[in-house]
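To assess whether the prediction recovers the assembly geometry, we first specified each molecular entity separately, as shown.
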Amino acid sequence: MLVETKNLVKRYGDVLAVDNVNLQIAEGEIFGLLGPNGAGKTTIINMLIGLTKVDGGEIAIFGKKVNGNREDVSSHIGIVPQELAIYNDLTAAENLAFFGKLYGIKGKLLQERVTEALEFTGLSDKRKILPKKFSGGMKRRLNIACAIVHQPKLIIMDEPTVGIDPQSRNHILSSVQELHSQGSTIIYTSHYMEEVEELCTRVAIMDEGRIIAQGNKDELKELVSFEDRIVVEVSTVNFTLVDEIKRIGGVTDCFLAENILTIHMAKNSHIIGRVVDAITGAGTEVVTLSAEKPTLESVFLTLTGKKLRD
Amino acid sequence: MSRILTIAKYIILQHLRNLGITLGQMLIFPIVVILILGMALSPAFEERELDPTRVGYLNEDTGVMGGLVDDFLSRGEIAELLEVKAVPSREKGLELLKDGEISALIHIEADYSEQVLAGNKAEIKLTGHPGRQLGVAIVETIMESFTYGGNATYALAAMGSQLEYAPAFGSIEEHTVSASGLKPNAMGYYAVTMLVMMAMYGAIYAAYDMGQNYMEPVGLRVMSTPVRPWEQYAGTVLANLVTVYLQALIIIAFTYFAFDVYWGPNLPLILLIVFVHVTLAVGLGTMAVMLTRDIARASGLLNILVVALTFLAGGYFEVNLPGSFQWGQYLSPNFLAQTALFNTIYGGPRNETLVMLAAMAGIILVTFTVSMLAQRRVVQ
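The predicted structure of the complete assembly is given in tokenized form:
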């Protein structure tokens, strides 16, 4: 395992911020830490990189305990903090050169790495510009460039897309996939379910300092796949139709909002044909029909009773 | 070491880019204040013509030497400097001295002539008022010139010459109390006080940079690199020392060349005092931000503090605290630095300068110790 935590604990006074967290992250994964704000994601990240003291448990990265090997371990980690962590009075290239030097890169190699990081994040033409003149999205990209200038084995991204425009968001998400394809292991925290679902090979869902579920996306969805759901747009509204559908064996619930019918049914009950027959038999027509699969959002909702962005 | 230098280099680069502070507040502002106050208050610093020093005179010697002292003190040139008041007894003279009626008492004992003529050690007794050092120094100088003349006359007499007070004119050496040598003019005064104030504003640089290290995401990112905490701390302190010290040197050089400010004969000691003061300011700024854990609050506090400390030290104009409260000025690090600088420039007591430096070193030790202890609490 590239990263392994055992019974990790962090307390702030009486608050248990991280409660016996066990993580195993293999080399080459994009590992998602999904949870609402305050779930403990950033605290875990800070403990991984040695910024926050560990109150209990152990962390091993690259097979070495972080405690006692911080310098060695941190030299192979790149961190993209949740908040922008760049110097506004240093140009983009100077920001990268500064962090590159702190990781021990010098001379021609440093210049090459700076150029590569700027190219990777699409900031080559901004290398001599001060970040205070950047858009929010460009600052986010520079925030990422600073984390990869030393080409680390492990990249930790803590909510890297918070508060940016869709174009920059897409750029960052494709950058993550490209870094992954180049062999980097990535830990990606977010409370945006769609991002984690799109990017991550494995996911840990967190709430109130605890890991409540962990696995690949299919494994997680399987946890809540005890029913199927279809959504049907009908041509005309007919309130007796709802009772009609509820009487079909296997249907567990049905409700109508405007001209959209949402129908819950027992898993693998194969009754869509009977539902369509009931709709047409009631003198209305099916405009569209879609089968909805469980999402990580619904997994979280089911496991915690809360929405991710509560 | 290379990481410390890297951190320092890039912080200094940021200082240089921040022209509003680096150029405006730290250089142009103090130079303009020196110019304005130096010109506006120049008359207040000009040396006034000295009034004659009032001196008590008791001559119990009826011999030839006593007569010579009488003659000497009654000469016109002496009368311009001394207002001699004869006293009937030593007790009465000491009483007048105690009451501040006179600045010094000259006492010629009855056997003075006898002792001189016998070739024995003879003394003119001079008792001075402790609070009137300038007046006492004038009387002492005048009487020394008499005794030198007297000794020369005695030497001539011993060789067979007629006994006469030899250097009838020009026996008093002229000791000019020159403004440029012993006391600052307005420009010189404000060059020192504004230099000290500017260096003190360096505390705000330190508060910002150190706060950024421990309270801002970019500083935490630096912490997540292989840099050791002490390297980050040392690099930041080094950057602040270099920036503020260079600014101080620019002010010294500018005032020297542009305003003709006198910086005294011992430039290395001046530079050392300024460096110690800059270090103190950086320590103070570091401590402020570590204790408040808030850059804005620390900067606001320091902005007020620098003005208050400058005022207390007499940086804007002379502050005369009542006698029992005079120690209050020593609470201001500005006062310590100013005292050390003025002593060095204008020939004040060296011991006092060393005491001021020692006190500043003590404050530096306290500020950095407190800030390092507080820094350990910041990272939890």
